[in-house]
Design brief:
Layout: E1 8-10, E2 13-16, E3 25-27, H1 47-55, H2 60-77, E4 82-84
Length: 89
């Protein structure tokens, strides 16, 4: 759970508050709308969804950095961490 006022760093993701019993699950909320943005084996993100992500971005640089961290997390720790996106397909 993102804690805008602090929280811990977890696998390189800042502002995370661990939840009991689900320490290997990361729900990225609306950071990305399609898992293909961080897990290319699931196909590419449909262009309209990607446009919606950027249209709603308050801070594009911050959002790009978040996607880069999600890509690295999936690449380096997919065997330990399940990442769940807003849209499953």
């Amino acid at each position: 759970m993102l804690e805008p006022t602090g929280g811990d760093e977890w696998f390189g993701m800042p502002g995370v508050r661990p939840l009991s019993g689900v320490d290997e699950l990361l729900h990225v909320g609306d950071a990305v709308f399609h898992r293909g943005r961080f897990a290319p084996e699931h196909g590419s993100c449909p262009p309209l969804l990607e446009q919606m992500e950027w249209a709603g971005a308050a801070d594009v640089a911050r959002d790009e950095a978040t996607v880069e961290r999600l890509v690295a997390l999936h690449r380096d720790h997919a065997d330990r961490v399940e990442i769940v996106a807003a849209a499953a397909r």
